[in-house]
Design brief:
The chain is an alpha+beta fold. It is built from two helices and seven strands, in the order H-E-E-E-H-E-E-E-E.
Length: 184
């Protein structure tokens, strides 16, 4: 078994699966544990954890084993509805959720053993939200984690653009024109 990962994808899949398992062990079925693929989110079933990469950190000199260390600055957005459940305080519950995520992360290698180092610099802080009847509260848990990458195994087609669209109306994201295919 290789002691490196070929890409970042297995790391995030393992993180999502491990977080889901830890909540299930507590009797909590989280509807949403996903990688954040956009800087804003629309409708979202809460409670939710959205995982983001804030930064790929400073590259260290490769060790003698041929692996390539990559330091990830991870942000886990802990999101709860602003509507109280029973007599709970949504403001306190989102803080409790962030605290729980911090404890889960503390000594976690996501089942990837020697391919991942222990998380460092774990912290949590409020990260906004939205007021109103369909409001939500957000706390963010940040940490650094170094992983060991090996030879890349990339799907070249994933990077190939087949066409270009041009936005016509900045007020409406759905208003765009197709301006052509990219010739090879």
């Amino acid at each position: 078994m290789s002691s490196t990962l070929s890409s970042l994808t297995p790391y995030f899949e393992a993180m999502k699966a491990t977080l889901r398992e830890k909540f299930i062990e507590l009797g909590i079925d989280f509807p949403t544990i996903e990688l954040l693929d956009d800087q804003e989110f629309g409708e979202l079933e809460t409670p939710a954890l959205l995982i983001a990469v804030d930064e790929l950190g400073e590259n260290k000199a490769p060790p003698s084993d041929g692996s390539y260390p990559e330091t990830l600055n991870i942000a886990v957005l802990c999101i709860l509805s602003s509507e109280p459940v029973n007599d709970s305080s949504p403001a306190m519950e989102v803080i409790n959720l962030a605290s729980l995520v911090k404890r889960f992360v503390r000594r976690e290698k996501w089942g990837l053993r020697d391919k991942v180092f222990m998380p460092k610099e774990i912290e949590a802080f409020p990260a906004g939200g939205k007021k109103g009847p369909k409001g939500y509260r957000v706390w963010q848990v940040n940490f650094l984690q170094e992983i060991k990458l090996g030879e890349p195994a990339m799907n070249e087609e994933a990077f190939m653009c087949t066409g270009v669209y041009f936005g016509v109306n900045p007020e409406n994201d759905d208003d765009y024109r197709y301006i052509g295919e990219i010739n090879e």
